Amino acid sequence: MGEQDTDDRLITAAERRARVPLSDSQVWRQEQAGNFPRRIKLGNGQGGRVAWSLREIENYIAARKAAR
Questions:
Q1: How many other CB atoms sit within 10 Å of the CB of residue 33?
Q2: 3-9: long-range contacts at Cβ-Cβ below 8 A with a sequence spacing of 24 or more?
Q3: Distance separating alpha carbons of residues 53 and 16, to the nearest angstrom
Q4: Which stretch of DSSP H or E encloses residue 6?
Q5: How far is it, in rounded angstroms, from Cα 49 to Cα 51?
Q6: CA distance 3 to 1
Q7: What DSSP designation does 3 have?
Q8: How many CB atoms sit inside 10 A of residue 60's CB?
């Protein structure tokens, strides 16, 4: 297993948008419905920085491909 296979770094909203081209509001609604990986809050309070698990995003994409 290579290093990339175990890579589970955090990705920013910009990188998440590049991998999953949904608007921020679409992603938020999908998260609330339990249909998209939940964001990880990095900052305190409202407007704080958030990120997503790269592994969870990749698993989401793989599941969407498998379901077609």
A1: 8
A2: 7/54, 7/55, 8/53, 8/54, 8/55, 9/54
A3: 9
A4: helix 3-6
A5: 7
A6: 7
A7: H
A8: 18
What pLDDT was estimated at residue 5?
A: 52
The domains of the chain are located at: 14-67
pTM reported for the whole predicted model: 0.83
Q: End-to-end CA distance of the chain: give it in Å, rounded.
A: 28
Tell me the C-alpha distance between 67 and 45, whole Å: 37
Are the CB atoms for 48 and 42 separated by under 8 Å?
Answer: yes
pLDDT tens track for 5-61:
557 999 999 999 999 999 999 999 999 999 999 999 998 877 789 999 999 999 999
For every residue of 20-68, DSSP letters joined together read S---HHHHHHHHHTT-SPPPEE-SSSTT--EEEEHHHHHHHHHHHHHH-
